[in-house]
Give the backbone structure.
Amino acid sequence: MIPFFRLMENEILLIHDYHLDELRKLAISSLPNESCAILLGKKTETKNIVKYIVPLNNSAQSSIAFIIDSDDLFTIYKKAKLMNLDVISIFHSHPSNPFPSETDKIYMHLNPVIWIIYSTYSNYFKSFVLDSFNDFREIKIELIKD
Ligand SMILES: [Zn+2]
């Protein structure tokens, strides 16, 4: 298998404030468990523009892990296609700091989209892509102003 890594160094994630609020609320209402969501949007070479958030059930019901049902995932890909959008990011929350865990890194490799992590501990969003098997790179989050 040829590993897929994100190569664009100047990639950014563009998101509306109200979408960040929606993710924050999802994370807080899911406590003590981790929450998860999929973000649909448009992707250009360097810009990932969030258009729509699909909140999901964490079927692991855990404070240290999240699992997205394959049925949910299938529905989301169908929805994205109907809306003419791409799956551009996977969101989940951590009760600890917002950095990918070893398990996250494995799944980041399998799902090479942008991974947004919100810390319910420090109230901070961070986003990452996997740069190599063991290294992640932070992607800048910019607010859409309009
Ligand atoms: Zn995680």
Remarks:
- The helical segments are 17-30, 70-83, 102-110.
- Residues 17-30 form the longest helix (14 residues).
- The radius of gyration is 14 Å.
- The chain has one domain: 12-143.
